[in-house]
Design brief:
mainly alpha, 12 helices, 74% helix, two-stranded antiparallel sheet, 2% strand
């Protein structure tokens, strides 16, 4: 069993979990959402509002085609934005009080390291946006930024098909990297006094030890987010808190218990 140390605190072993675990995590997440709808849906409404503001901002700027990479980038930042949902699930599990004010201002065990993780994810997000913009320019040119030119260029030209292939591969690589690093690292940083490197390596180890299960989990997250975006972001009201709560249960399932969890 692999373990790690940081600041004198043992990082518990990573568990091997059954293939159907992601479905159980989603069921537990849905239960949490129903138990604390005032908190869960507040996060969902906030995330939806941000998405809609970005959409209309790009619309009035005449660059609505950039909404696709921006939406994809939400998958990169989502684990960090969902920390309040992780705390909600933890408190529900411990039968502690759950209020919206508490979920906005709660203490974590490794605040500096958690902030460092947030900076890392923000950098990855901007790298993804820059890569997406460069790919648009290289394959389709400036006219691709106009919505009326986007679909015909993407679907009916060799350059557009090339962009779809290369862009999808680039996005998949970055998304899988972030997924592996953040699958359990952010809850770890919230609940234990460890450094960001140890938390990230533990998360990567959890994914490596359960490759099929975690690929299913990643696919379910992606499918839920696609559904949410396909509903003009309105599905995010429910999907975002559902994934956030379920991610806490994934952490609890994959990482051995420690005092205070």
């Amino acid at each position: 069993m692999a373990t790690g140390k940081a600041q004198g605190v043992n990082v518990h072993s990573v568990n091997t979990v059954p293939l159907d675990s992601p479905w159980k995590w989603l069921a537990a997440g849905w239960s949490d959402l129903l138990r604390a709808p005032h908190v869960s849906l507040s996060f969902g409404v906030l995330f939806t509002a941000i998405s809609l503001m970005l959409f209309f901002g790009l619309y009035f700027a005449g660059a609505l085609s950039l909404m696709l990479p921006l939406a994809g980038g939400f998958l990169l930042l989502g684990p960090m934005i969902a920390v309040g949902l992780y705390e909600t699930s933890r408190r529900l599990e411990a039968n502690e009080s759950v209020t919206l004010a508490d979920m906005i201002a709660f203490s974590v065990r490794s605040p500096g390291q958690l902030a460092f993780m947030g900076v890392f994810l923000l950098i990855i997000y901007f790298v993804w946006l820059e890569l997406a913009f460069l790919q648009f320019m290289l394959f389709l040119g400036p006219q691709s930024l106009q919505l009326e030119n986007l679909l015909p260029s993407l679907l009916f030209t060799p350059s557009g098909i090339g962009l779809l292939v290369i862009g999808s591969l680039t996005g998949a690589v970055l998304a899988l990297l972030v997924f592996a690093v953040t699958a359990v690292s952010i809850p770890l940083l919230m609940r234990r006094e460890i450094d960001v490197v140890t938390a990230s390596l533990t998360s990567i180890q959890a994914v490596a030890r359960n490759p099929v299960t975690m690929l299913l989990w990643a696919a379910l997250i992606a499918a839920l987010m696609v559904f949410a975006f396909a509903t003009f972001f309105l599905g995010l009201v429910f999907v975002f808190p559902l994934i956030g709560h379920a991610s806490w249960h994934a952490y609890k399932s994959l990482i051995g218990p420690a005092p205070g969890d």
